[in-house]
Amino acid sequence: MIKAVLFDLDGTLLDTNDLIYDSFCRAFKEVLDIELPKEEITLLYGKPLKTSLIKYTDNEDLLENLINSYRNYNKVYHDNMCRPFEGVKELLLALKERAIKIGIVTSKRKELAKRGLELGELIGYMDVIISPEDTIKHKPEGDPALKACEMLGVLPKEAIMVGDSPYDILCGKNAGCLTCGVEYTALQLSELIKIKPSYLIKKPLDLLELI
Prior knowledge:
- It holds the Pfam family HAD_2.
- GO terms for molecular function: inorganic diphosphate phosphatase activity.
- Keywords: Hydrolase.
- This is Pyrophosphatase PpaX.
- Its EC number is 3.6.1.1.
- The protein is α/β, with parallel strands linked by helices.
- It has 2 domains: 4-15 and 83-210, HAD superfamily/HAD-like (Rossmann fold, 3-Layer(aba) Sandwich), CATH 3.40.50; 17-80, Orthogonal Bundle (DNA polymerase, domain 1), CATH 1.10.150.240.
- The protein has 10 helices and 8 strands.
- The chain has a 6-stranded parallel β-sheet, sandwiched between helices. Strands 2-3 form a two-stranded antiparallel ribbon.
- Helix 1 (17-32) runs antiparallel to helix 4 and helix 7 packs across helix 8 (166-175).
């Protein structure tokens, strides 16, 4: 029986796909003076920033500059490029009506994660928000999902992790949770399917059928 749903944030509940893409483009151009194809950039979605960017430089100063450039652009334009996907509010309300606990498990810093949830009028539905500040190990390790389950008072097998990237699904699997991929991902859907999530949904409200 599913007692809790753990959601990734960006690309799952909040449509910030254009913001993330623009933030990566700005960082690569500003710091390394390179332009990458969109297909390559979308493969970086859903990962901690350092994990995404370290492959492009082994210079610690340049890596730090890349991260800062991304974060600075992202913070400035965040509020204008952040909105819930259609059906998300209705989904969260229905989960609450069924007494299902709700958590966020995100690679986004807590300050900005809360800001996005507030902008989308979603924060009131959340029982816990797990961000990189809360665990030593991050996605794709299971620690963030395990931390969420611990704080929600549920067993991992009683929770389902929902996300748009392979790192989300691996995080849930490594924690012992059920997993659900979203087909409206901005990533290549084939990359998500390769990880073999327990379920796939075409739109947020489809999750209710699984619960």
